[in-house]
Amino acid sequence: MRAMKMMQAVVLAVAAVGSVWASPTNKFDLNNDGKVDGRDASQLMTMLQYLGPTGSMPAMPGAAEDLSGDGQLSLADWREFTRYASVVGAYPDALFDVAIQWGQPNGVNGADKFAIAQAVAAGRGGSYSMRFDFNADGRVDMKDWMAFVSHAQKAYPAVLLDADGNGAVNGKDLDRFAQMIDARSYDPAQDLNGDGLMNAADWRIVVQLANLVSQKAVFDVDGTSGVSQAVVSAADSRKIAVSLQGLSVGFQTSIRYDLNGDGLVLQADWGEWVRWATMVYKKPDMVLDVNGDGFVNSGDMMMVNSAIGQFPVQIQFDVNGDGVVNASDAALIAMRIVMGPAQLIAGDVNRDGCVNSADLAMVQSAQGAMSSMPLYDPDLDVAMNGYIGPDDLNVVSMNMGRCR
After folding, report:
1. Degrees (nearest 5) of the Cα angle 85, 89, 95?
2. Distance CA 30, CA 18 (A)
3. Which of 316, 342, 312 is nearest to 329 (CA)?
4. Of 354, 358, 346, nearest to 403 (Cα)?
5. Which residues lie closer than 8 Å to 283 by C-beta, 6 or more apart?
6. DSSP string, 47-87
7. By the 8 A CB rule, do 200 and 258 touch?
8. H helices within 214-326, ranges in order?
9. In Å, how far from its chain's centre is CA 359?
10. 162: number of CA atoms within 13 Å, CB side?
11. β strands within 110-192, DSSP E
12. Which residue in 66, 48, 38, 40 sits closest to 11, CA to CA?
């Protein structure tokens, strides 16, 4: 009891200081720095953090933190702040930037996600921390988690997908989601629909977000990305084929190979891989090199011809992704042998057929990234020296405006 009184005295003393800094034009800008952000939420929590959902204490006259104006410091003041941040003022980052570093807001990131997930998990056990009660209803529960997820899906999808928190989104992150779902385990930080379960519904959201952040991550299944952005190669093609082939003999295959995000793992997911590799990523050789020797040649032609008419269908030889192996697949390889490999213009990093300002912006965004860093993307390392820097910008600039 004595300790609580001492704590309240400290809080009230701080409140008197807080009233000095409040902005005269916006009462929610508690530190009077011209904006409403996580620092204002932290200042408010300095006053309220020791109060439970029903607790209160008298506010000093004119205390900035008495946002409800009732002369008390309580959940009502936090409710006023959350309403302003999320609805009226549209500053949701002020709510969700909970892991402010050195007193400075740094945007919503993985540290915030994991802190929120931990608080929600504790809330399910009866604990309460007002800072994480984003709807100010007196509880920290899945509603608060979903308030964060709903905002992050629109503003920070990469934060939701970065399961290991290393700053990169690659196949290993999606592997973690799949492992939780396959094992029917649970991690609140990976529950993307807030139903308290990890299942195919979450995986559908994972694929949807990955298609916004990094489509390569969906197909990066061989675990070789390291700490960098997703890397896709012929090795992924072979692993996808082997994993989906098991369906034909009754093997259960990981949700990881639901590549189109429909919640089901079917041989049709091979068609999704073929479509993406050939039409979107524009590296058909990853599919056409069926024997994995690094070349598309007569050896691949012979293997496809030998698989025509076989049952069950040998997925890896279905190089056009239509569900059957026939003369059309052999014809694609024959055409590739005659025509040679598809040529991309150096600097066309988004593979749309032209080098333009979009390519330049992508390379600029990763400047300074080395192969050992999360921001490194080998597709942006057009100089192929393990470092994204001026050399890569020079290549893009020299080819600016060229189209194939």
Report:
1. 15
2. 7
3. 316
4. 354
5. 232, 277, 342
6. HHTT--TT-EEEPPTT-TT-TT-SSEEEHHHHHHHHHIIII
7. yes
8. 215-219, 234-245, 268-275, 285-288, 298-307
9. 22
10. 23
11. none
12. 48
How many Å separate Cα 206 from the centre of its chain?
8
CA distances from 295 to 284, 317, 339 (A): 11, 15, 14
Give me the residue spans of the domains in the chain.
2-91, 110-218, 234-339, 344-404
Question: Which residues are paired to 104 by β-bridges?
Answer: 101
Long-range contacts of residues 35-39, Cβ cutoff 8 Å, at least 24 apart: 35/91, 36/84, 36/85, 36/89, 36/91, 36/94, 37/91, 37/93, 37/94, 37/97, 37/105, 38/93, 38/94, 38/97, 38/98, 38/100, 38/105, 39/100, 39/103, 39/104, 39/105
Which residue carries 């590799």 as its tokens? 277
pLDDT tens digits, 142-191: 999 999 999 999 999 999 999 998 888 999 999 999 999 999 999 999 99
CA dihedral (295, 296, 301, 307) in degrees, to 10, reads: 80
Query: Contact, 53 vs 130, CB < 8 A?
Result: yes
* Among 326, 323, 327, 306, residue whose Cα is nearest residue 315: 323
- Classify domain 344-404 by CATH number: 2.60.40.4130
C-alpha–C-alpha distance, residues 141 and 133, integer Å? 8
Q: Mean pLDDT for each consecutive 10-residue tract of the chain (404 residues)?
A: 48 44 81 88 87 86 88 93 84 88 72 94 90 94 95 94 92 96 94 93 97 94 82 93 90 94 94 95 93 92 93 93 94 90 83 88 89 83 88 89 86
Query: Which of 268, 262, 234 shows the shortest CA–CA distance to 248?
Result: 268
End-to-end CA distance of the chain: 77
pTM (2 decimals)? 0.84
Prior bond of 312 cis (ω within 30°)? yes
Helix (H) or strand (E) holding 147: helix 142-155
| Longest CA pairwise span in the chain (Å) | 87
What is the spatial distance between Cα 47 and Cα 10, in angstroms, rounded to a whole number? 9
| CB distance 157 to 209 below 8 Å | yes
- CA dist 157 and 152 (Å) reads 6
